[in-house]
Every structure is written in C-alpha cells, then in structure tokens.
Amino acid sequence: MPPGNASLGVPYLVIRVGRSRRRGNSVELQRRGAMQIIFRGSLKEKKDAAYRDWEMNNRGAFEENAPPGWSYAGTYFTVFGFGKFEVETRWDLSSYGALDSARDHENEIWNRLILERMEFFEPTILGETYLMRGSEDVKFWE
Predict the structure, then answer these.
(1) Which domain holds residue 103?
(2) I need a surface site. Which of 83, 86, 120, 140 has the fewest CB within 10 A?
(3) 79 falls in which pLDDT band (50, 70, 90)?
(4) Residue-wise pLDDT tens digits, 106-122
(5) In a domain, 139, yes or no
(6) Is 73 in contact with 19 (CB distance < 8 Å)?
(7) Does 105 map to a domain?
C-alpha cells in the first residue's frame, strides 16, 4: 500500500479535482480524437490533504499558463487504498505536437508550479506517465 494511504489509517473517498474550463471534459475530447497524458505518483506521508488544497488553489494558474495544446482534465485520488499510487493528474493534449510545446514552454509561473508540485511527491517511489489516445482514434499495426 502506498505511504499516503497507510498514513491515513482509514479508507477515504475518491476526489476528482476540477475540470478544464477551456475545453470541456475529457469524454468530449476523446470523442474528437484527442490524447491524454496522465501523471501518477505517490505523495509524501500525510501530504494528501495539503496536496489537494494546493492543487485546488493553483488550478486556475495551471490552466492559464499551460503549454499550447494542453488542457487540464482533472486530478484524482485513489479510493480505499486501491491502486499503486495515491494521485494522478490528467491533461488533454491537442496533438503529439503539444509534447514539443511543453518542452519549449518558457513560462515562469508554469515552471514554478511544476517545481512546487514536485515537493509533495515521495522521491523514493518512481511515478508513472501514460500517453493515451481515445479508442475512436487509435490505430493498430497488423
């Protein structure tokens, strides 16, 4: 069980934090063939509520300063200790080019937020990142 869940001692409910104001929800984007990038990680012990509050207070700044082609799709916490990680954040991407825009994105507020966010995560437990496409837009090689 991840450290953050063990530190609580009691089960807790899933919390979905936010929805992008700029582009609608991720289901609508999936139908249009957009992609999602998903970052999953383990929080430092007893930092669950602090991270939730920090994320909620900074959501607008994340949305306003995101790289071109990135749209915030929400932050989710695990339910009753299920899952390998306590938290995941999802971003809708307009195209593969949005990944390049993030690499080249020079925005002081965005950079500060990313560094602040990292302070909540357990450095000894590697997180995971997924790049996903909607089933309507995925192609298979046979």
Answers:
(1) 3-131
(2) 140
(3) confident
(4) 999 999 999 999 999 99
(5) no
(6) yes
(7) yes
